[in-house]
Amino acid sequence: RRTAALASSSGPGRTQDGHPVALLANIGGVADAVDAGAQDLEGVGLFRTEFVYLSATTAPTAQEQAEIYRQVFAPFPGRRVIVRTLDAGADKPLAFADLGPEENPALGQRGLRLSAVRPDLLDAQLEALAIAAKDTGADVRVMAPMVATAEEAAWFARRVRENGLPKSGVMIEVPAAALRSRDVLAEVDFGSLGTNDLGQYTMAADRMHGALSDLLDPWQPAVLDVVAAACHGAADRGKPMGVCGEAGGDPLLALVLTGLGVQSLSMASAKVPMVRYALSRHTLSDCQRLAALARDARSAGDAQAAVRAGANPEV
Ligand code: PEP
Ligand code: MG
Predict the structure, then answer these.
(1) What SS3 state is found at 277?
(2) Which of 4, 16, 41, 157 is the most interior residue, by most CB within 10 Å?
(3) d(CA 76, CA 138)
(4) What is the pLDDT of residues 252-300, one digit of tens each?
(5) Beta bridge partners of 152
(6) DSSP state for residue 248 in the 8-state scheme
(7) What is the C-alpha separation between 315 and 307, in angstroms, rounded?
(8) 280: Cβ contacts below 8 Å, ≥ 6 apart
(9) Residues having C-beta closer than 5 Å to ion ligand 2
(10) CA distance readout (Å), 233 to 141, 239, 240
(11) Could you tell me if the CB of 192 is within 6 A of ligand 1?
(12) ipTM beyond cut 0.95
């Protein structure tokens, strides 16, 4: 029965009472884009552009990049594609953007911090994105990784505007940006919570360290509190907040995130049907009740158990 129900749920994401929650794909290149483009989803919530250049030894020109981005955008005319500018650094090394080894790469000159010292790389990428967006008719929006302050968001938004792209956003994956989302989002059009890094930085636990997986559990109530604060600030500022970390693809957690105020969920495209189904079986006020249950719990395990017990058992 559940399989039949899953198969029959289609179309835009919405709760049982019609509250919209956009369902989007996380992609890493052309093959993912073609695959996601053929599926029933509203667009792309995270294109990790650094994945395209993992084996590049020299910086790609704007023309070379535009050629790839055109292929990525082509399956999405009229649909949104959120492109993240290069998230490189010592933790995600790219040969042509190497600033040398760092003692604490996750806390170093990565993401937008690298763009600040290599604005030539950022500008070439934005130029390429503007060309490809124009050619394909996709609703392209760019966002910056690893933003911590409103000043950084303003710097990025200005460069995006100067390159003729209409919309800018920031990843909310540093607790500082989450706690001050009201100020950070004043500078841009949207925020997108990166729950992978937000968990790492909130719990002070290296996301690559297998022995710390309990601390990195996205159900950690402290992480949910930080997400709640970020959503609160976004609502205050009247700007949309999404999720593009792995947490968005867990159907129960997707309900909690919706209850906390998130308006879009981006995930591996294979997870979209389950999340769509979970949303369709709960009202917005159910989601809010489940979010409150999760935040009332004392541990990640208790939060998950409480939500599982409180949710529709078919999910
Ligand atoms: C995140 O940090 O949650 C995120 C979506 O980005 P990445 O996993 O690429 O760091
Ligand atoms: Mg991240």
Answers:
(1) helix
(2) 41
(3) 5
(4) 999 999 999 999 999 999 999 999 999 999 999 999 999 999 999 999 9
(5) none
(6) G
(7) 11
(8) 9, 14, 15, 16
(9) 173, 194, 197
(10) 21, 9, 10
(11) no
(12) yes
What is the pTM (predicted TM-score) of this model?
0.97
Ligand 1 atom showing the smallest separation from residue 48 Cα: 9
Cβ neighbour number for residue 118 with a 10 Å cutoff = 18
Asked whether 91 lines ligand 1 (CB < 6 A), one says no
* The two three-digit tokens of residue 277, written as one number: 């189904």
User: Structure tokens of 72?
Assistant: 């990525």
> For tokens 């649909």, what's the residue?
79
CA dihedral 302, 304, 310, 311 (to 10 degrees): 180
Cα(285)–Cα(5) distance, rounded to whole angstroms?
22
Which pLDDT band, with edges at 50, 70 and 90, does 2 fall under? low
245 lines ligand 1 (CB under 6 A): yes
Residues 201-260 pLDDT 10s = 999 999 999 999 999 999 999 999 999 999 999 999 999 999 999 999 999 999 999 999
Q: Which of 196, 223, 257, 267 gets mutated to test ligand 1 (max ligand atoms within 8 A of its CB)?
A: 196
